[in-house]
Amino acid sequence: MFTEKLTSLSVIKNKSRLLLIFNYLLIFSLIFYIIVSSFISKTKIVYVNNSELFDGFVMTTELKRVGEKEFITRKTALDNLYSKIQSQSISASQKEALMAEFIKGKEELQQFNQAFASNESAKIWSRIHSYTEDFCKENNYQLILGSENKTNVLYADEKLTVTKELLTYINKRYEGLK
């Protein structure tokens, strides 16, 4: 009976040792997995300066040039009309008709400016977003925050900005170089 107890105690000790070894291996494996996975799947979050990105985009410059050309054409026509209104050689009724035309032209110019700026900005941002998606995939970024002079971001380390890299990328894409 004493030998049976001794044998059963010895079996329990062996099982305890095996269980302890198994637990250590399990803990070690878990720690190893956490360390490896943190290095492999490190979240990459960066930010860009929206103003700098928008203003530096070649498409923005091109569309501004087109808009300015149209604006100058319309403004010149208004200026010519205003000069006619100021002329002493026209009658009061002609002056009144020209003044109505001038007011209408001025309102149309303001509407043109607002509509042009809004429509073109939407087109530009749409293009920037599509290029940025490709940029993220190529650089394994999971999130790019956009900020106007960091107003929406309380703090961002300057090392996290990719504004210049993204600007170079989108300009190359826009020009068909990438």
UniProtKB/TrEMBL annotation:
This is OmpH family outer membrane protein. Pfam families: OmpH. SUPFAM superfamilies: OmpH-like (SSF111384). Keywords: Membrane, Transmembrane, Transmembrane helix. The lineage of its organism: Bacteria, Pseudomonadati, Bacteroidota, Flavobacteriia, Flavobacteriales. GO terms for molecular function: unfolded protein binding. InterPro entries: Chaperone_Skp, Skp_dom_sf. The chain crosses the membrane at residues 21-40. It comes from the Bacteria.
